[in-house]
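**Protein fold record**
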Amino acid sequence: MIRLLALFAMVALLPGAANPDFLIVPAQDVHWIALPGTPGVESALIAGNPSQPGTYVIRVKFPPHVMDRPHSHSRDRHVTVLEGHWYAGTGPDFDPAKAIRLGPGSYMFHPAGGVHWDGSNSDETVIVQIIGEGPLTSADVDPSKGSWVVLDKH
């Protein structure tokens, strides 16, 4: 144990070790913006930029009873539920009754090109965090139907 502590102490003294490029974003500093053309969906850019090369982190806030229709992305994405219960399905057939309910702390991997749909299928607001590599493009399976659905309340 003493050797391990000594090793950590030596690493901390290396040039540059004391000032790495950390990014800290306190919750109160997360800036939410309304996504244009949506029924109240908001997003927050935490780090990076999905339209540029490199890692990005975004958050998406779905209002109650709002889901997106089947779509895919050009690159892999990692999604973690932060708040509420997120409902997700895969494949081209949008059927909220068949969605999987994922609570806070749950994770879902979206492979590049994998068709999926997701959002809030309850009275809860849902927040998910998405990590991926840019540049990223997204495509709706059927653009004629629009990207967003406001579900009937149960």
